Amino acid sequence: MSIQPIDVKYTAVATAENGRDGRVASDDGKLDVVVNPPKELGGSGEGTNPEQLFAAGYSACFQGALGVVARKAKADISGSTVTAKVGFGSLPEGGFGLKVALEARIPNVDEATAKELLEQAHQVCPYSNATRGNIEVTLGVA
Q1: pTM for this predicted structure
Q2: Which terms under GO biological process does the entry name (predicted)?
């Protein structure tokens, strides 16, 4: 995939202090959260963690992409939800990596249509485009 110039519509800005055991805040004050490693990684688990923030962003973005492709397909996705499960772990060659399972519940379409909409949304979602070829992403229908 070649990198194409992008027409930036807006820019989100957030700053992290003290890495995985600190605080993350957006420049507009709408996001201000304590981050701590989860208990599974030796942290207190009292705050949120980067993987939860990534899951929140990916699920919201993917739901938006689903809406775009559903409108084009004239499919009713009212009442739908997208859940992102983000896994964090060690890579065989060293370092750490992520994997994502996206699961959608789309009550007003049949399973075949839901799967097709998910595949189409995966092609237009900015998070999917950013992660494609970098992390494992699986799609599922609930």
Answers
A1: 0.92
A2: response to oxidative stress
